[in-house]
Design goal:
Layout (H helix, E strand, L loop, with lengths): L18 H10 L4 E4 L6 H15 L4 E5 L3 H14 L7 E4 L5 H10 L2 E4 L1 H9 L8 E6 L10 H12 L5 E5 L6 H11 L3 E4 L14 E8 L3 H21 L13 H16 L5 H23 L2 H12 L4 H8 L1 H15 L6 H15 L5 E4 L3 H11 L7 E4 L8 H13 L4 E4 L14 E4 L6 H8 L8 E8 L3 H25 L25
Parallel strand pairs: 1-6, 1-7, 2-4, 2-5, 3-4, 5-6, 8-13, 9-11, 9-12, 10-11, 12-13
Amino acid sequence: MDEFVSHRLIKPRTLQARLYQQKILGRAVKENILVVLPTGLGKTPIAVMLAVHVLDKNPNGKIMVLAPTKPLTNQHYSSFRKFLNVDGERFQVVTGEMKPAERRGIYDARQLIFATPQTIRNDIQKDIIDLSKFSLLVFDEAHHAIGGYAYPFIARRYAEQAKNPRILALSASPGASHEKISEICKNLGVEAVDIRTEKDADVRPYVQHKDVEQVKVKLPPSFVAIRGLITEVYEKKLKTLRKFGLTKPARLVSKKNLLAMQAEMMSRLHSGSRPSFAAVSVITQCIKLEHAIGLLETQGIRPLAQYWKKLQKDSSKAGKIICNDLKLQTAMKITAEMEARGSRHPKIPKLCSVVEGELRKNPDARIIVFANYRTSVDDIVSSLRNVEGARAVRFVGQKEGVTQKKQMETIRKFRDGEYNVLVATSVGEEGLDIPSANLAVFYEPVPSPLRSIQRRGRVGRADIGKVVMLITEGTRDEGYYWTSYHKEKRMKSILKGMKADGNDADASNSAPKERKAPKTLRDFG
């Protein structure tokens, strides 16, 4: 029988008393902390319990929960309303659509504020909000706290204004280097790090078994022929770049390398280096050709054909040079002919087979397919119409013209079973309350450990789940898979080291004693 948190400010039998969450809470009440938990393992309940602790100590204290998107902000609002035994009039979602005077009144009158960081930053700059009145700030998706994002600004002003600032930062994957994680900690005023993985002893009782299977396909000879034409031109241009300092072998040159070299050459240009003009043009051509190879290898003919059409309309020097190259013109012609014949990447029939097998085994299954490109999403949805029992729907972002209301409607229909296959771009990875699925299919591996963790987190929250990764042999699919694997492994190692060292963005040498988890929230303090 499940045990539930017992506290006057928490609705009875709503919040499960998980040992690892209460251990983390034991630290969060004493120090500003970054909590790293995989998607689906309950970061929000920790925020709720910390809010209860704060309200218990200071009944008049205000609490703010920040999240990068409006849907995620609304999700936190709903979760806090679900768990907290607090008058609903004390809760408020704040958006930039409200008039400044209205927001000022809300900050004064309401106790629990849920907002996007851009709105709060604007209101701080205009002196509409007084952060000194807040006893707790929660930064969700804390990995955004870098560069010019609003999180660091808010945290800095909060530290300046609040008498006893308390910060809780939450993330599934803050970064794969000590420098990146330390930067996030510094930017948010975080003093400590705590992490749990699905393999930790106190987490395992709450984790459903999740099979991760690699399904490999081979690139067809026609695809290899097109790749050969593009690669021949690409490698010739890389040889040109050796004159400007490129040292890596052609097979190891990544888009990241090219972008770094492009930035260096642009810097030289600003300092008056004339030869850099030629280098920048060649680098730009290489970036475009590297992208074309990636589309062919991992996505298929139609995405590549659309990219060729885009290049043909490109008025830049680099675009014109590519389109005038005879070998690339041949590649474009073959691509167009294959598109006209309806040629598809071998991943498509393999994906259809995987979905068909899952639905045959479990007609009530919910399946999420992740793909990087909208064109691939459209191709997948179209192909799944031929799979018996599959009711597929595309799920793309607001940049593609889909309103938030439409997104919410699609999610509801997926939850209710009107659709049973959700085919999503990256919008399905973060910031939306998508129901758990029985099966997640990665149309391609992603090199980012954060995105990989978030994708996997959509599966098997309540029941046994499965993840299938479609990988094209001998392509960047394999490289991306192993990049993500090693980055995630390194991230966990770094975070566990920082936790053992007692935090710290500076990694102090003294390790704190493990606190005994209390039985109820009343024991915290």
